[in-house]
């Protein structure tokens, strides 16, 4: 039988994803052993998984180098790839927001030239150009985006916010929420057809697990 | 300084010897197949006016087209698609023809950032179109040819998924959503984004029954049971007609003996296209993209001034080749059968011999670099040429078999008798 391959985001999503996969009977012991290998295998289920940079997961899945992937919605929105998004895995929840100095609250429209600092140029453009129908100038940064409005590099930022603490400590407020973000299960368009049986088994397994967790939380 | 002299631009590539041979073979088989169904091949120009593709329905975004200007400043494009020019040809040059018309084409198309063909900006499409009929028989024939095309290319494991856009359109009529909202839902279902779809539906005021069906749409794929499942819902006439249409097409394909390749996907949609009825795609192992796509498109010819129903498909030749290679399906390679070596005195005899052998269908390479016999044999071995014929005089030759190292002397007259 052909190996089914799963591309996983390296970093904050990995452990939670591995835990979910183990619960549906996928053997991740090779990964947990702390090996430096790039590809881990579960021989009994004929599943292979590999860890890649989050931003690369959609690429692997789109090209079919991986049949499935686990990746944040932020990355999916930014990459805009052709793939199937089949399940919200719930973990790593946060929000994609527009933030800026407090005096801009409710006055975003009044700014003539908007310079937007962000790690997510595509999401920023999509939001301002399609939702708000406004032209913007995107300033692409790779980190500490909150700094940009403070030093006059940009008027506003588009970034991920988990607790809002960093924003607050730097005197910034959320001006608008663009999207709710969490980890998602994605599937290659061809694999979804050619391997539908095996993939559906995994999807349904994870879906049940999520439902059970949901029930348990409600019962509490 | 000519800085880019030795490079090829992004998204284009040289297709060399073995690959090129395999590609031409594949194109030849496809062309033969299309002809055997009575299709007439057409070749639209590689350069067209931008206006030909400018309408929303063409499904090709402005930013994905290669654009430039002609001498009068009009906008030109390298054709991003061949179906649209074929519709232009039909509507403008075959108005008074006897319909239906069957057209086929094989040619290169050009798109920026095309994700098919492994991010190539130039790739080859082969396809057929039938104009002038709106019958399930015509749709089924086109799907049948698509299946034959994949089989004749050497693929064995592949799948054709069939959907019907009118089913979705019928559902949308019932929801009363705005055009903008419908296009959002279309996008969500197209991406099988069940998460986004759920969130979107929660905000709308559609009836629960319908909401449930729309939410489930991305999962409406598999065997023909899917159609029965869909029928159990309360549908309007448009959606019902769409299901009847698919059923009819499946029935015809069953008579063709193609059922094993077919599956149904009612959630199959495209983002922005001219589709008006059945829609289908082909998949196989080893390529993460659909290798062929087709649909009924009854409104496209109307864009060029003549209403005319149509159906057709296009196959990505480069994608099929990629699939063949990834699935390790053996491909024929170009071979040179014989190397002919001669001296001044044997020249006329050498030319004659080559000519006769070539007429017999052999590939014969003639020595043009004045080699010695030993050099010729070494050269042939290096190039995987089966044997060297060295011309001794007008009547006699020496044959060197490269693999065995054997040498035989024979008369030319005898050699030609073999």
Features:
heterodimer; A: 220 residues; alpha/beta; 6-stranded mixed β-sheet; 5-stranded mixed β-sheet; 9 helices; 34% helix; elongated; B: alpha+beta; 9-stranded mixed β-sheet; 15 helices; 17 strands
List the helices and strands and how they pair.
The complex is a heterodimer of chains A (220) and B (418).
Chain A: E1 4-9, H1 14-23, H2 29-32, E2 39-42, E3 47-52, H3 57-62, E4 68-72, H4 73-79, E5 84-88, E6 94-101, E7 115-118, H5 121-131, E8 137-140, H6 147-150, E9 156-161, H7 165-169, E10 172-181, E11 183-187, H8 191-194, H9 196-219
Parallel strand pairs in A: 1-3, 1-4, 7-8, 7-9
Antiparallel strand pairs in A: 2-3, 4-11, 5-11, 6-9, 6-10
Chain B: H1 17-36, E1 40-41, E2 47-49, H2 50-53, E3 67-69, E4 75-78, H3 83-93, E5 101-110, H4 116-119, E6 122-131, H5 136-152, E7 158-164, H6 165-175, H7 179-190, H8 194-202, H9 208-216, E8 221-222, H10 225-231, H11 237-256, E9 262-265, E10 278-284, E11 292-296, E12 310-316, H12 317-326, E13 338-341, H13 347-359, E14 364-366, H14 373-382, E15 387-391, E16 396-401, E17 407-411, H15 412-417
Helix pairs in contact in B: 1-5, 5-11, 6-11, 8-9
Explain what you see.
The complex is a heterodimer of chains A (220) and B (418). Helix content of chain A is 34%, strand content 29%. Chain A has helices at residues 14-23, 29-32, 57-62, 73-79, 121-131, 147-150, 165-169, 191-194, 196-219; strands at residues 4-9, 39-42, 47-52, 68-72, 84-88, 94-101, 115-118, 137-140, 156-161, 172-181, 183-187. Helices cover 39% and strands 21% of the residues of chain B. In chain B, the strands form three sheets. Chain B has a nine-stranded mixed sheet, sandwiched between helices. The longest helix of chain B has 20 residues, at 17-36. Chain B is elongated, with a radius of gyration of 28 Å. The mean pLDDT of chain B is 92. The chains are: A alpha/beta (220), B alpha+beta (418). At the A-B interface, strand 5 and helix 8 of A face helix 8 and strand 8 of B.
């Amino acid at each position: 039988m052909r190996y089914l391959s799963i591309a996983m985001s390296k970093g904050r999503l990995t452990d939670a994803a591995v835990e979910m996969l183990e619960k549906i009977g996928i053997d991740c012991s090779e990964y947990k052993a702390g090996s430096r290998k790039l590809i881990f295998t579960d021989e009994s289920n004929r599943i292979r998984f590999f860890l890649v940079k989050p931003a690369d997961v959609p690429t692997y899945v789109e090209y079919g180098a991986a049949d499935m992937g686990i990746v944040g919605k932020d990355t999916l929105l930014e990459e805009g790839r052709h793939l199937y998004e089949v399940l919200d895995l719930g973990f790593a929840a946060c929000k994609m927001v527009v933030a800026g100095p407090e005096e801009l609250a409710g006055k975003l429209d009044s700014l003539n030239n908007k310079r937007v600092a962000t790690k997510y140029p595509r999401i920023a453009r999509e939001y301002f150009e399609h939702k708000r129908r406004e032209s913007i100038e995107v300033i692409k940064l790779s980190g500490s985006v909150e700094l940009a409005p403070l030093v006059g590099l940009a008027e506003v930022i588009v970034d991920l916010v988990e607790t809002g603490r960093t924003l607050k400590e730097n005197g910034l407020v959320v001006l608008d929420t663009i999207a709710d973000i969490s980890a998602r299960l994605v599937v290659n368009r061809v694999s979804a057809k050619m391997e539908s049986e095996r993939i559906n088994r995994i999807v349904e397994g994870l879906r049940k697990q999520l439902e059970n967790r949901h029930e348990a939380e409600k019962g509490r | 300084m000519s800085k880019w002299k030795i490079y090829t631009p992004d998204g284009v590539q040289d297709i060399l010897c073995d690959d090129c041979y395999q590609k031409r073979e594949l194109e030849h088989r496809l062309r033969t197949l299309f002809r055997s169904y009575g299709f007439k091949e057409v070749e639209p120009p590689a350069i067209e006016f931008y206006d030909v593709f400018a309408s929303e329905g063409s499904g090709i975004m402005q930013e994905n087209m290669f654009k430039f200007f002609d001498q009068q400043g009009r906008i030109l494009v390298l054709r991003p698609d061949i179906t649209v020019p074929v519709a232009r040809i039909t509507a403008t040059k075959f108005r008074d023809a006897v319909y239906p018309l069957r057209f086929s084409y094989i040619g290169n198309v050009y798109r920026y950032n095309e994700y098919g063909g492994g991010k190539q900006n130039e790739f080859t499409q082969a396809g057929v179109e039938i104009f002038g009929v709106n019958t399930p028989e015509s749709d089924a024939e086109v799907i049948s040819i698509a299946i034959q095309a994949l089989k004749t290319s050497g693929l064995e494991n592949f799948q054709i998924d069939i959907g019907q856009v009118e089913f979705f359109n019928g559902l949308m009529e019932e929801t009363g959503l705005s055009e903008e909202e419908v296009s959002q839902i279309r996008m969500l279902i197209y991406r099988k984004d069940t998460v986004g779809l759920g969130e979107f539906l929660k905000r709308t005021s559609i009836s629960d029954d319908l909401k449930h069906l729309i939410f489930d749409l991305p999962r409406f794929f598999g065997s023909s049971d899917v159609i029965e499942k869909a029928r159990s819902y309360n549908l309007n006439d448009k959606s019902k007609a769409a299901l009847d249409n698919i059923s009819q097409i499946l029935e015809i394909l069953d008579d063709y003996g193609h059922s094993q390749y077919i599956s149904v996907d009612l959630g199959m949609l495209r983002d922005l296209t001219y589709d008006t009825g059945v829609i289908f795609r082909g998949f196989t192992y080893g390529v993460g993209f659909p290798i062929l796509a087709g649909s009924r498109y009854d409104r496209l010819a109307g864009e060029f001034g003549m209403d005319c129903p149509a159906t057709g498909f296009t196959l990505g030749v480069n994608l099929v080749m990629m699939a063949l290679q990834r699935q390790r399906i053996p491909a024929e390679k170009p071979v040179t059968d014989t190397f002919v070596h001669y001296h001044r005195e044997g020249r006329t005899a050498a030319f004659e011999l080559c000519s006769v052998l070539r007429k017999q269908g052999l590939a014969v390479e003639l020595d043009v670099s004045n080699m010695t016999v030993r050099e010729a044999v070494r050269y042939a071995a290096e190039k995987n040429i089966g044997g060297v014929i060295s011309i001794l005089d007008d009547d006699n030759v020496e044959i060197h078999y490269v693999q065995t190292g054997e040498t035989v002397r024979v008369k030319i007259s005898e050699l030609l008798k073999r």
